[in-house]
Specification:
Layout (H helix, E strand, L loop, with lengths): L1 H13 L6 H11 L8 H18 L1 H13 L7 H20 L3 H8 L2 H21 L8 H14 L7 H11 L4 H29 L10 H24 L6 H19 L1
Length: 265
């Protein structure tokens, strides 16, 4: 029970902070000795909990974009019209990059060495944020969506932070800090929902029995509550330009995983 709740806590905190939830879950499952279990159903539930948290947190923005995007088909094109297309473009590009990498991701997720390298890469990206965010660029939102969608596609690799990659890409393309936070997490919702639907369909087609560890419901509650809290924390950190400091943590953890893995071989 303690292991499953710990996984829920890590999912809730790390899904939105720039430290890679997939990397942390892979490491914890490896060190808890859960690698041989069928945890697909459990992972899906944890991701559903954090997606629900993001839907609630961004409920006003989501409703506004949906209304303005659908209204754009029948009348005046407002900001939500372009914003909706930007989200669709980013999601499409994420799928184009992420889907072919699914097999690679499964292999890499089972190795602390590869997860460690992913965390180090995340640390490098976060370390570059103070440099790249100083660029004053005036790109259209659709062009920004292309770059951010590619960044989100790369972030399917374990250890690579989705929020870190996408916010950094937004800042590089000239988005204002507050808007970078909002756009980064709004484009994450359809991408995460789509990825989990694919995993659910794949799971349903297999003959393997679902494995839900003891305490899985409490784990989902923890993921949901802490996911909401992490979104609030991340917003404040981004607005105060403090979030790149997570790169130090990613670098330390990633280096530790690489060293420990090399000693095992």
């Amino acid at each position: 029970m303690l292991e499953s709740i710990t996984l829920g806590v890590i999912q809730g905190l790390c899904e939105f902070l720039p430290v890679s939830s997939s990397g942390h879950l892979a490491l914890l499952q490896y060190f808890f000795g859960l690698g041989n279990e069928n945890l697909v159903a459990f992972d899906l539930l944890l991701h559903f909990a954090t997606v629900l948290a993001s839907l609630i947190y961004f409920r006003r923005e989501i409703i506004q974009v949906l209304i303005e995007w659908f209204s754009g088909w029948f009348g005046k094109k407002s900001f939500g019209w372009e914003y909706g297309w930007a989200i669709l473009i980013a999601t499409f590009l994420t799928g184009i990059i992420g889907l072919p990498l699914r097999g690679v991701v499964e292999i890499m997720s089972s190795s602390p060495l590869y997860v460690g390298f992913g965390l180090i890469f995340t640390a490098i990206v976060l370390g570059c944020v103070p440099i790249i965010s100083g660029n004053d660029k005036n790109h259209s939102l659709l062009k920004i969506a292309v770059v951010v969608g590619i960044a989100q596609g790369i972030a399917v690799l374990p250890g690579v932070s989705r929020s870190g990659m996408t916010i950094a890409a937004c800042l590089f393309m000239g988005l204002e800090v507050k808007e970078a936070f909002r756009f980064s997490f709004l484009i994450s919702i359809p991408a995460i929902v789509g990825a989990n639907l694919l995993e659910a369909l794949k799971f349903l087609k297999t003959s393997e029995a679902a494995f839900l560890p003891e305490g899985y419901l409490w784990a989902c509650v923890a993921a949901f509550v802490l996911g909401l809290a992490a979104l609030g924390i991340m917003r404040k950190l981004v607005l105060n330009e403090k979030w790149p400091y997570f790169g130090i943590y990613c670098l330390a953890l990633g280096a530790l995983m690489v060293v420990l893995s090399l000693q095992l071989f």
